[in-house]
Design goal:
The protein has two domains: 1-71; 80-221, Ribonuclease H-like superfamily/Ribonuclease H (Nucleotidyltransferase, domain 5, 2-Layer Sandwich). It has nine helices and six strands. The protein has helices at residues 2-12, 20-36, 39-42, 47-60, 66-71, 129-142, 158-164, 172-181, 199-212; strands at 80-81, 90-99, 102-111, 114-123, 151-155, 187-191. Helix 1 runs antiparallel to helix 2 (20-36) and helix 6 (129-142) runs parallel beside helix 8 (172-181). The chain starts with a helix and ends in an 11-residue tail after the last helix. The relative contact order is 0.16. It catalyses: Endonucleolytic cleavage to 5'-phosphomonoester. It is an enzyme of class 3 (hydrolase). InterPro entries: RNase_H, RNaseH-like_sf, RNaseH_domain, RNaseH_sf. GO terms for molecular function: metal ion binding; nucleic acid binding; RNA-DNA hybrid ribonuclease activity.
């Protein structure tokens, strides 16, 4: 497998000018077939095996174009833990939740200690909390595309961020977020713990409750 990877690297280097579509085809028809051969016999869900598979996967897709990766849902977005807020940047706090059978999400945009913008939406009642969180992250990006400088997006939903870092997520909203944020270096995603009591995050949470109190859904998400 390592030898095959080495040959693909040599074959796909810039001086050869091989199209990313061809690289994708090589991966799907050669590398992936070799990885999956006899899968039921040898695969065990151990940390070591999963780590090795992910390394092979990441390596192979270095040479596939961004558009192709997005179409296959394979982009992985990194995120970080943070317990202190940088006041000299745009800080966007978003949260999603379900309250009394209603689902919604809220967004608050800060610069220094002042609120610059605030939004909240109620979703259709069939939507899950995960979808509300994901839509909140997506809208946090969409509502800040016109801003200059670094933008930090905070959420207390670890599962939402983990989906962005997964190459196998099937959620359409997650795929859309990846398309929006990939290669936009001004964005950084952060997970912030609920229990540390960040006032800005609590403000976003209060907007979620406001959203769920609306009489009508103003944003419908397909399940």
């Amino acid at each position: 497998m390592i030898k095959i990877q080495s040959e693909i690297t040599r074959f796909c280097r810039a001086t050869w000018g091989v199209k990313s579509e061809i690289t994708k085809e090589i991966y799907l028809r050669v590398t992936e077939e070799l990885i999956l051969y006899g899968l039921k016999a040898w695969y065990k869900a151990t940390v070591y095996i999963n780590k090795k598979l992910l390394q092979i996967y990441r390596y192979s897709y270095l040479f596939v174009s961004f558009d192709i990766q997005c179409s296959m849902g394979k982009i992985m977005i990194d995120w970080y833990f943070k317990d202190q807020i940088e006041k000299d940047k745009y800080n966007v706090f978003t949260d999603g939740s379900k309250c009394n059978g209603r689902v919604g999400f809220g967004i608050v945009i800060y610069y220094e200690d002042r609120i610059q913008r605030e939004y909240f939406w109620r979703l259709n009642d069939e939507a899950t909390v995960f979808l509300a969180v994901s839509q909140g992250i997506k809208n946090a990006i969409m509502e800040t595309l016109d801003l200059q400088g670094e933008i930090n997006i905070y959420t207390d939903s670890r599962s939402g961020l983990q989906s962005l870092n997964s190459p196998w997520s099937q959620c359409e909203i997650i795929h859309e977020i990846k398309k929006w944020i990939q290669n936009k270096i001004k964005y950084r995603l952060y997970w912030i713990k609920v229990q540390i009591g960040v006032a800005e995050n609590e403000k976003a949470d209060s907007f979620v409750k406001t959203a769920t109190e609306k009489d009508e859904s103003i944003m419908v998400i397909s399940m």
